[in-house]
Amino acid sequence: MPRPVNILSQAPLVRTPRPGSAGIPALAALVLVLASVAPLNAAAQQEAGWTPALSMQYRAVSGTAISPDGSRIAFVVREPLMEGPQSEYLSHIWMTDADGTGAAQWTRGEASAGSPQFSPDGAWLSFTSGREGEGEAGGQVWALPLAGGEARQLTKAEGSVGGYRWSPDGTRIAFLMRDPPTAEEKKAREEKRDVILVDRNYKFSHLYVVAIDAESDEPATPVRLTAGEFHITGFSWAPDGGRIVFAHQVDPRINTGRLSGDLSTTTVPDAAQIAEIVAYREWAESEGWAEGNVTMEAEEAAEAGLFGGNIRLTEIDDGIGEVALLVGGAGIERSPHWSPDGASIAYVSTGNQPEPIGLGDVYVMPAAGGEARQLDTPNRSASVLGWSGDSSELLLLESLGTRRHVLAVPADGGEMRFISYGDGVIGSVALTGDASRMAFTWQTTEEPWDVFVSPTNGYSPQQVTDLHASVPRPEMGRTQLVSWTSTEGFEIEGLLTYPVGYEEGERVPLILNVHGGPAGVFSQSFTGSPAAYMLQYFAQEGFAILRPNPRGSTGYGKDFRYANFQDWGYGDFRDLMSGVDHVIGMGVADPDRLLLMGWSYGGYMTSWAVTQTDRFVAASMGAGLPNLVSMTTTTDIQDYLVGHMGVEFWEDYERYERHSAMYHIANVVTPTQVIHGAEDLRVPFTQGQEFYRALDRRGVPTEMVVYPRTPHGPREPKFVMDVSERILTWFRKHLGSEAVAAGDESR
């Protein structure tokens, strides 16, 4: 039977130093700034223990960037704004020296800033922000001089800038932008006749490029590189700056990304040519040639002081790059990375066919085209971070059981090596220009995320931030990695969090928490973090929480991930329940006080479980999908579900019904709460409504909680805080440990 791949089980344990311990650089500047926004009643919060409000003070960190010489690190800090009518997040960029000194916030204001990058010469810190964006334009690329000075707007695009990259020589920036609305579309919207035609009139994402003039304070006008009916998802510059390789699919729909994906290249003009093209366009438009159907002859161009190319405005507007297909076929290719020596391109691919359940092998091919070589990774689901400076290795990020680490794989297919290791989760990895050093975030179950730096040869992580020094850290419920043998010999891992102050031998209420996916994974991340399920809040209130990784989870190899193919609700359910029995056998869980919650696929398993067993006292289904037939016809990822079922529902109704909780609804006796976002396209709102209505009509105790403006999971901080409190109230009510509030109409 497939078993978990646990390569790191014998790796040395790396423990994050506590603030003030030996070996941590001075972090006074950052601590002082963050202390200014710390709560005044920190001592009271420490005494009160873990609450959703306390977890919200642990601010998310992402978007790490490291300067080309490794001397400075930028990162994004996101904080919730919840005063009065506010319920939103604000992100800004911070910077610190690589020894942990000189920390300071570099962007400010009411508009968020993100996506920091250093220019290739290390003189500028660029970022995206909508600080001056109004209407259609939205976010643009800005830059701050590291020597000091005000932020400068680098791009002036008609739409909002997506992913962007500096050219290797620092003279240009390429970026992605969705096709802006046409004049007719703008007019239709203004006149309230903007009818939506489903799966029509797509807005594709295409490549643009601007020339950067270090002497000018004016934002640069972009030149379009690509056009046509394809949607670009990612790109990488050639080291000589003359070409870009990009990944694209046939349309922008998320479902299409599971069926379509190829690689192509385009030529890119140099900075001088871009300037000439922009000048030509401005000159031609000033001459009344805005319709773009006039060719400028070489003689006219010379007289106007412009380059002597015979080019039409329509050719500029339609994309001036020479596009050539590099990798096509039935497989799905994405995330290309050009090697520093220019000879090779690495990318992630599903191989020779789509793999809706999930597969991402790493390939390397000649940049000029030719046969690709597949590289082996433990989970076959890696992300490419970049190349080593000498182009001999690829640096990858991959989940490995409950951990996530950086690996290095030789481009010629040699033996893999671990760059990072230990119990915890690495993320937001950024590499120096030669990939000799990396900046990253690191967290464990008991330590929140901070920014670290390390060489990539000889792992030696040094903490350079102390972002939560001023945030109270009450006693935590400890988390333990547990494992058990399920049916068919499957070895299953899970994370068990004990109640705060747990005493050995005490039997406590157990919450079974099921992850999404099903190819999700519970990892060794900080258990005090703000999320829909506030783990330490439940632990503070006396609950143990078991988070299993049943068959179908990522992090344990392809065979394990595919082990629930055509088997939703059966083998995976047995994995979950055998985990519950294991914790009961440990003497921790009270078999008469079992509870259940899960989101998305975890919500599916929640709906399924209450139709299969009456062992749970109460359950909470978050964004669950109890009806796989109606789910397939309403979700925006229909081929993901069909991929798991192996057949369309009209070809085998019985298969879909056999795995759908709605067709077993008569069995439910467990009080079940239903939670859903009103704007959920992934698992449409009607899925939750179906289950709620059926439970209510059957007289099963239920309630439905709907979050307005919410997609597939709460996004507004006040809603994030609200979820766990509502679940806890529901659980306590049916455990009999809390009086039912007056006016509660749930039965």
Topology:
Layout: H1 28-35, H2 42-48, H3 52-55, E1 60-66, E2 72-81, E3 88-97, E4 104-105, E5 113-118, E6 124-129, E7 140-145, E8 152-153, E9 161-166, E10 172-178, H4 183-190, E11 205-211, E12 223-224, E13 231-237, E14 243-249, E15 262-267, H5 271-286, E16 295-296, H6 298-303, E17 311-312, H7 313-317, E18 323-327, E19 333-338, E20 344-349, E21 361-366, E22 373-375, E23 383-387, E24 393-400, E25 403-410, E26 417-418, E27 425-431, E28 437-443, E29 450-455, E30 462-463, E31 479-485, E32 491-497, E33 508-514, H8 535-540, E34 544-549, H9 558-561, H10 571-585, E35 589-599, H11 601-612, E36 616-622, H12 628-632, H13 638-645, H14 653-658, E37 672-677, H15 685-698, E38 702-707, H16 717-735
Parallel strand pairs: 33-34, 33-35, 35-36, 36-37, 37-38
Antiparallel strand pairs: 1-2, 2-3, 3-4, 5-6, 6-7, 7-8, 9-10, 10-11, 11-12, 13-14, 14-15, 15-18, 16-17, 19-20, 20-21, 21-22, 23-24, 24-25, 25-26, 27-28, 28-29, 29-30, 31-32, 32-34
Describe this structure in words.
By secondary structure, this protein is α+β, with helices and mostly antiparallel strands. It is built from 16 helices and 38 strands. An eight-stranded mixed β-sheet has the order 31-32-34-33-35-36-37-38, with helices on both faces. The radius of gyration is 27 Å and the shape is globular. The chain starts with 27 loop residues before the first helix and ends in a 12-residue tail after the last helix.
What is the compact description of this entry?
The chain has 747 residues and is of the alpha+beta class.
